[in-house]
Amino acid sequence: MLQTRRSKLVSSEKSALFENPIEKLFENEHSERTKVKYIERVSLGLDLTLDTWYASPYPQEYEKVEHIYVCHKCLKYMRKHKTLLNHQLDDCSQAGTIIYEQGGLSVHRVLGLESKLYCQNLSLFAKLFIDHKVLYFDIKDYEYFVLSHRKDSMFVGYFSRLRNVNSLNNLSCIVVLPPF
Which of 19, 56, 74, 122 is the most exposed, fewest CB within 10 Å of its CB? Predict the structure, then answer.
């Protein structure tokens, strides 16, 4: 009985998601923009460089860039190492509110409605490491739980979920970077 009810809920949530014309548009755009992977490497902060696994729909001026640089705190992306060095001089910070700390790690709760640019950057960055992710820009109804090192705010991973949904299945996305 419970399994049948759960299956019906999941099925209706999926069909409702893709009946929305905006979601269909995002899905089609995703399919077109991620056919070819141009970004081969990403540097997160000054100390971590990773090979990417999948394409991500960064803006068009990044489509032919093989290596991008991302701030480890605010997740702003840039094309040049020098730009990242200059950005590191700014006092940027990780978005959200700390909801948990233990040992060298902390978890920030970030609301898409309040930190739109951060959450969009987070979604674009995460797409470099997961095969199928549809939502990048329509993030206002989501909340993100971001795991980072406390010492330097280095991004480690996150999960997201829809806010204000009474569902048995409400995990939208989960990513932990390969070295962690």
Answer: 19
Reduced 3-state DSSP string for 21-41: HHHHHHHHHHHHHCCCCCCCE
Report the distance separating Cα 150 and Cα 86, nearest Å. Answer: 22
Q: For 28-38, write each residue's pLDDT tens digit.
A: 665 565 566 78
pTM: 0.75
Domain containing 9 equals 2-176
Structural domains counted in the chain: 1
Instruction: Classify residue 15 by burial, with Cβ atoms within 10 Å: 0-12, 13-18, 19+.
Output: exposed
One-letter amino acid of 77 = Y
Separation CA 37–CA 33 (nearest Å): 9
C-alpha gyration radius of the chain: 17
Query: Residue 72 sits in a domain of what CATH number?
Result: 3.40.630
